[in-house]
């Protein structure tokens, strides 16, 4: 420590004056004496003193040290400023999340597929309406399945429509504002409030642009009322778990864009109104072993797809209104 105030050079002398001013003449005089004694007794050499001085000087001007300070500062800024910025923007926009859950993040974090689910699959398995026992061998397959006319007897196929759903939501206080998952896909409708505020002409597409939306029915009173119009599909295993929410998808033409579902169970859909085309594709890492393919379902059909494994997209024929109830089992 004391070695850095020795005087091997003129620069060192200037440095020493600085130190004297800071520490006081008395203290530095004692250090000078200690230096002289060290040199005289051969405890250290002049070169060693100069080297020690250079190291001390470099501590003050070490670029690595400066870089470290910058790095710590940047990390601190990100940790503190980012949440503050996010909360501020969310508050100003009056929304809970101004960055939506997006497929880029999901895609970046999904596990790599082993491709076993798609090898040799070129089309869905198409089954005629069948009993639970007949369906049992296929119950937990990742093979896409259509069960023809499986839900054609549901009251929902006749009674459920845009106006029924709108009136139901408007009759339950707080249902439209409930914090349930909402997907607007490519449409300009950003919330259930927008969906149920459509003009009659836009809602039946006699005017305006096509729209397609989907949302989770997580509001218990609404879900209970809707489930009076549809049971669970009769062919599913009796012990299969069902979630406490269902999903409604409805609209025109656009359908869902290609995506994976991040859900815990297998998916079933009941196609209540309109035809819908499905496009399935394996994960990109399976392109050399598997192939994409498409199929369509008709009103009354049930479709089962492991949408956690198969990338999927939908389109609806021009001018047709599609209404689907979706849920999970497993
Ligand atoms: Fe999906």
Q: Using only CA atoms, what is the Rg?
A: 35 Å
Query: How many structural domains can be distinguished in the coordinates?
Result: 2
Quantity of strands, as a count:
11
Q: Can you say what the CATH homologous superfamily of the largest domain is?
A: Cupin
Distance between the termini: 71 Å
Task: Write down the overall geometry.
Answer: elongated
Oligomeric status of the shown chains?
Answer: single chain
The topology string of helices and strands comes to HHHHHEHEHHEHHEHEEEEEEE
Q: Which spans have pLDDT < 50 for at least 5 consecutive residues? A: 1-10
Do you know the CATH topology of the largest domain? Jelly Rolls
Query: Can you list the strand order of the major beta sheet?
Result: 1-2-9-6-11-5-4-3
The distinct ligands, each listed once, are: fe (ii) ion
What would a concise description of this structure say?
The chain has 330 residues and is an alpha+beta fold. The chain has eleven helices and eleven strands.
Task: Describe the model.
The protein is elongated and about 110 Å long. It has two domains: 2-60, no CATH class; 112-329, Jelly Rolls. The strands form two sheets. An eight-stranded mixed sheet has the order 1-2-9-6-11-5-4-3. Strands 8-7-10 form a three-stranded antiparallel sheet, with no helix packed on it. With 330 residues, the protein is an alpha+beta fold. α6 (132-135) links the parallel β1 (125-127) and β2 (145-147). The protein has helices at 10-23, 25-40, 46-60, 63-93, 103-109, 132-135, 155-159, 162-171, 192-196, 200-203, 220-226, and strands spanning 125-127, 145-147, 182-183, 212-217, 246-252, 266-273, 276-281, 293-297, 302-305, 311-315, 321-329. α1 (10-23) packs across α2 (25-40). The structure holds fe (ii) ion. Residues 256, 259, 261, 307, 312 line the site of fe (ii) ion. Residues 256, 259, 261, 307, 312 line the site of fe (ii) ion (FE2).
